[in-house]
Amino acid sequence: MADTAGEPPKAAGAVPEELAQLLAAARSDVPGSLEHLLRRVETAHDALERVSGVEYLLFVCADIACAVPLAMLREVLPSVPKTVPLPFSPDWMLGIFPLRSEMLGLVDPAPLLLGSVDGAISSSFIPSVERTGQRASPFGPGLSSRPALVVGDETRSLAWAVSGVGDIAVVQEADLLTPGDVASRVTLPFDERYVSGLYIPGDDAGRYVVLQADRLLDDLLAALEERDDHNGRA
Amino acid sequence: MDEREVVGLYIAEMRALLPVVQRHLGTLASMDGAEQHPLAAREACRLATAMADLSSGFHVEDCAQLARGIATALSADGETSRPFAVIAAAADILTYIARRVDMMAEPSRILAPTEAERSSSLRLLATLSTARRPVPGMPGMSAPVIAALIMPALSTPQSSVVEHVTSEAAQATQTPQEDQTAAADIEVADEADAQAVAAQVEDSERLTVDELALVRSFQAQTLRPAVPVTGPLNYAGISGVWSTAKAFDAQPSTSAAPPLDGQKPSADDLDYIPPEMKRLFITETTEDLEDLRNHLLHYEEHHDDPGTLLAMGRIGHKIKGAAATLGFDILAALAFTFEDLLKALQTRQAAPGPHAISVLVRSLALLQSALDAASADEPANPAYVGMAHALRDELFADAANGRSAPSDLPPAASAPLSPTSGIAAPAALPAEATGELGLRVARPPEAESLLRVDVRRLDELMNHVGALAVNRAALAQDRHEIERLQTDVDASLARLSTLGLEINDLASVLRSGAVTRTSEAADTASRDGAGGQRFGRRLFGRSDREERPAPEPGSQNGQAWDALELERFTDFDHTLRVLTEVIADLDTSSHLLRATLKHFSHLSEEQAALAGHIQRDVMQIRLVPLSDLVPRLQLEVKRLAPEVGKRITFTVRGEMTEIDRNISEQLAEPLLQLVRNAIVHGIESPAERLEHGKQETGALYLHAYYVGSEVVIEVGDDGAGVNHHRLAAAAVAAEVLTTEEARALHPNDALDLMFIPGLSSKQHAQMVSGRGVGLDQVRTVIQSLKGTIHVHSDVGKGTLFRIRVPISLSIVRSLQVRAGGQQYAVPFSSVQRTVTLSATDILTTAPAADANRGVPEPAARRIRVERPHANAVLGEAAYDEIPLFSLAELLGSEHTPRDVEMGLIIEAGQRRVALLVEHVMGDQEVVVQVLPKHLRRRAVRGATVMPDGQVLLLLDLPELISIVLDGTLAQPQPKRATPPTAPDTLAPRVLIVDDSVSIRRSLELTLERAGFDVQVAHDGIDALERMLVSPPRVVILDIEMPRLDGFELLSIVRSSQQFTGVQVVMLTSRAADKHREHALRLGAQEYLVKPCPQETLVETVRRLLSEPLDTPSGTL
After folding, report:
1. Nearest CB to A101: which of B467, B932, B934?
2. Are B361 and B296 spatial neighbours (Cβ–Cβ below 8 Å)?
3. Angstroms from A41 CA to nearest CA on chain B
4. Which candidate, B712, B867, B682, places its Cα nearest to that of B775?
5. Which of A220, B191, B506, B923 has its CA 20 to 30 A from that of A207?
6. For strand B1086-1089 and strand B1063-1068, is the pairing parallel, antiparallel, or unpaired?
7. What does the pLDDT average to over B524-534?
């Protein structure tokens, strides 16, 4: 795949005005607007569907700008719900919470994503948080009102606690670098098996690691299952 | 079984078959012109045949003929494609049959067709025939042809001409030994009959040659029974039975011969059966077998009741038809032979009596085995068919010899099955077990209206009910919030009213001054003119005018009042009036709101009650009486006791005790095993019993009764009992115990050894003989049901197994406890009792030798608890020392020692342990929500949502203890490091105390966004109440508040040890140093002045949480 980092953005069709307003509202981090946008994400509005390309939700996880196919998401929770700790679980398992008639697990996917990295993340790679379209939390890390992505389907799902949620990007194939291309150009911050590519928007507004959400979900689910030693440590 | 039930049975069967045939026809239709899939045609043909047989059996002649017509049309040899017209005609027929079946479902409908229906069926059949074999120049059959084809069959009491002939032939063949001859006769009769009919038609109706050919063709293919296995059901006699019996006898036993086209799949080839159909069949047949057992028990005591045999015959026939339809040939053959037995008894070809019962019992056991194989997706043993035939021959041989029972049958075989004739149970029943839980073993067929519901649907319904409970909790929480807000509004209104009064008073003072000045002005005016009168009117209004004489008109000296002052004063008066009106309006609105809220509360409570009813009803639907299990146990007694040469009566009490269906199903095997144990090992032989001065017949009993939300099932006998010394010796031999440990064992504890894996199997392997499960497995199953099992035995007197299982696994009565700052629910049943523990109660010395039977216990701390069954006379210690664990530590949290703590005494298998908890809040029934697979933990049974919306984990404490004691969990587990990214999981609690709604809300939002667990209180009293329930880490405290102000609350907090560690931040509009100093002197950590930036507040709270408590005033 050719280097597309410096190229102008590909035509992705006209973004409906309403969508543009919503995205602007989301950028401003007004909770009500963000919620409105998230509802739109859930219901897959026609306006969004009319736009060609594959839709990705941009978000920040472990200080890395990421993208995940919208089709992999069940729901986006504006803030991490209150959870109940589940004993005999790994530390990255933050607890369980009820979502309507279902009990969901809330996890921090970062440890698994960073599993193969010894902390030496290429600083040149990491986009600033502001560039993802998500403002830094006024309360700093840790105690912020963090959103959560409910990933999967009705049969297998987990909520991922992430640092922030940004835009929905309609990504053209040409804007994606394959893992092979990526490996030759940048140091991947995440375990390669969880990376399906790199998304570089035409306006060079950051770089986003496109996650293999399905594989990551599978591994998280498998790691959560209680093992024979009953300690459940992954 | 009454007529309605018969109709219901037929409808159910047909409704199961119709859609499948329709689907196959659809497949065929979609391949019109191309080579059609042979399987679709074969299956459609096979199922149509089954419908025909079924309809024949129930004497629904028109449907039988039509279904057979479809089968014939689709079974044409060598054809790979059927004309679309045939398929269309077949589809029309199915539509007709479906409509007929639907009509039967209406009240007062009967199975037999009306004249109009007969006519319709004839037309449909004619269409099918024409479509199948179109005759040039003859688009359809003429009326004479139809009449010749159909009318003889429909006008005959039997369902078809051939069946009529078969019946005739069978009348001449009365014994099974002559089956071959009878079958030959049938063939001859078929031919003869067809020819006779054709000849009759030819003579009387003058058919054309073509028509005659068609008649012959149709007769030959339509009226001949397509499947000889499933002949007409005729309960009044045995006609048709022996003839079809031949078909089975002639078939190889490995698989039934293909009845239709030689391609019918064998019982082993089950892949083609739709799983849903197979599942329905298994479920239904299981129930049928249970019904057969019940009828058999009834028949044993009522030989002369022909209805019982008839009912059994119907069930057997139903099983046979369904099994044959789905290709379970061996099962069908067994059902067929079972029918033979019943027919023989009906016709008195075999004599009723103990031997006949024995044969029927064994025949039923074969049916059960074949069904078990089908359930397990395994082929049934072909030898079963031979065994069934041997049983049949045995019955007939005895009948021929004029015996009612074989002489070599053990005497116990003649013992009555019914528990009513058994001796009284050796053990006294608890009071709960008597009364309504009376004995009722042989359930007569009941004309109850039943609906079969898939258990999975019930599970889904239960989940929805659970979700309803969650919503209910949220609704209740919202209601409380509204009520709280209403209280706030009232408080604000009260303050506003007070303020209004104060302003009014102030206005009065102002008015007084104004009056004085105005009076002076008026005086002047009276002298100088009436100019001031206008001002007086504006200022005081009518009342003032009434009270005070108005200045004289014409006064010109009102200008003595400063004009601007008067203007402002008037505006003030106006504003005051508006304020008064607003207060009045608010008061009215508040009253209306309160009334609405009251109504809403009432509706909400009703809704909650309704949801509770639904929840209970759904749970009730899942409950089944234990009586469903009883026939299997009784028949096992009947089967096994003679085998081991024992006489046993089996008594059942409390069989109507209800329990969740899943639990009941899983209890079946353990109960069977206990019964087998008692028969083989527990109860002595008659000779031994006599030798020990006992009655020759041993007593075996099953008692069931409720205890709270659990069911207790006791299985006991009056046999030899178990020698606990021998058990201990066996344990030593098996190296389960050391000699010292065995010597120290309490007798009751020694008996528990029989549940230990390995030991149990060695002791009892010979008795189970490959059947069912061993005692270790019995306990495993019971424990998997969250139940317990205990054994008590007296040598020479008998043995009693007592099982306790929850009524339902979905709804559990639980204790709510707090450990490690987290609230949990624990099943009530797993807690023996609670104890209050102080530091002096906790021992750190080495454990006593006999505590917990030498099981390794990693706990360093122990407590002393009363020992159950301690015999002081024998010098047994009254107390046991049992290990003590902190529940918080076991679950990976930090345990904070307190002066006085609570302990839960838990029983885990044969061990008892104590668990330290911080607080026991109370007990409540909770709906258990099963967690998804990846969230399941051995020590966690599920989650539940409390009425306040809080989610609690329901812990499985015995399992948790097992994990600890078995060494699979490091103990004590180190405190789990707080995950860096899990602030919301263990968010510190902050209590905001302020009487201003807006400030409370603002602070709440700010702190919640910062990740804290926030609570609010509207004054000091409210705050104190909340703190007593759950102390916060930080209190944000205002000063001026009604009832109890901030300073007073702070004083109380600092004077109470209970609130040690609670940090207080004063947040007030009082900026004066004297207030600040006073607050700090009382023990506040910080003093912030309103308005305070959000960041400052959040930073202050965070800083306090990260620092150790420092009380500047040193008042602690």
Report:
1. B467
2. yes
3. 23
4. B682
5. A220
6. parallel
7. 46
- Predicted complex ipTM: 0.72
B1088 Cβ neighbours under 8 A, 6+ residues apart: B1065, B1066, B1067, B1068, B1096, B1097, B1100
Amino acid identity of B902?
Answer: M
Asked if A231's CB is within 8 angstroms of B464's CB, the reply is no
**Tokens at residue B1016, please?**
């609010």
Where are the alpha helices (H) located in B219-269, listed in sequence order? 241-250
Cβ–Cβ gap A85/B934 under 8 Å: no
pLDDT band at A182 (very low <50, low <70, confident <90, very high): low
Q: What is the total residue count of chain A?
A: 234
Q: Cα distance from A161 to chain B (closest Cα, Å)?
A: 9
Report chain B residues whose CB lies below 8 A from the CB of A135: none
Per the listing, tokens 């359809």 go with B140
| Cα of B149 vs its chain's centroid, Å | 54
Nearest to A139 among B470, B953, B1098 (CB): B1098
Query: Pick the residue with more confidence: B210 or B646?
Result: B646
Give the position of tokens 């028109």. B62
Question: The tokens 């040690």 sit on which residue?
Answer: B1060
Report the alpha-carbon distance of residue A92 to residue A219 in Å, rounded.
13
Tell me how far apart the alpha carbons of residues A168 and A55 are, in angstroms, rounded to a whole number: 7
Rg, C-alpha atoms of chain B: 44
Mean pLDDT of A76-91: 87
Burial, A222: exposed, middle or buried (Cβ in 10 Å; 0-12, 13-18, 19+)? exposed
Closest CA to B104 of B33, B44, B155, B54: B54
CB contact set of B96 (below 8 Å; sequence gap of 6+): B66, B120, B121, B124
Query: Which whole-number Å values give the CA distances from B955 to B891, B902, B949, in the listed order?
Result: 10, 17, 18
Contact B297, B634 (CB under 8 A): yes
For the ranges B88-97, B608-617, B631-640, which has the lowest average pLDDT?
A: B608-617
Cβ-nearest to B985 among A85, A110, A230: A85
Which band of pLDDT confidence, cut at 50, 70 and 90, is reported for residue A33? low
User: Cβ contacts (< 8 Å) between B980 and chain A: which residues?
Assistant: 142
Three-class DSSP labels, A144-155: CCCCEEEEECCC
With a CB cutoff of 8 Å and minimum separation 6, the contacts of B427 are: B701, B703, B714, B716, B800
CA distances from A53 to A12, A20, A173 (A): 7, 17, 7
Among B799, B832, B802, smallest CA distance to B815 is for B832
The pLDDT-based confidence of B391 (bands split at 50, 70, 90) is confident
Pairwise CA distance, residues B897 & B917, whole Å: 10
Tokens of B567: 């203007």
- Where would I find the H helices in chain A? 17-27, 31-43, 46-50, 110-113, 179-185, 213-224
The more confidently predicted of residues A86 and B536 is A86
Contacts of B895 in chain A (CB under 8 A): none
Phi, psi of B717 (to 5 degrees): -145, 165
Spatial separation of the C-alpha atoms in residues B647 and B651, rounded to whole Å: 13
Distance to chain A for B826, nearest Cα, Å: 14
Q: Which member of A110, A144, A221 has the closest CB to residue B934?
A: A221
Q: How many residues does chain B have?
A: 1116
Contacts of A92 in chain B (CB under 8 A): 979, 981
Contact status, residue B917 vs residue B819, Cβ threshold 8 Å: yes
Tens digits of residue pLDDT in A107-158: 999 888 887 433 333 333 333 333 333 333 332 333 345 789 999 988 899 9
What the block records as the tokens of B829 is 């049943």
Contact B817, B954 (CB under 8 A): no
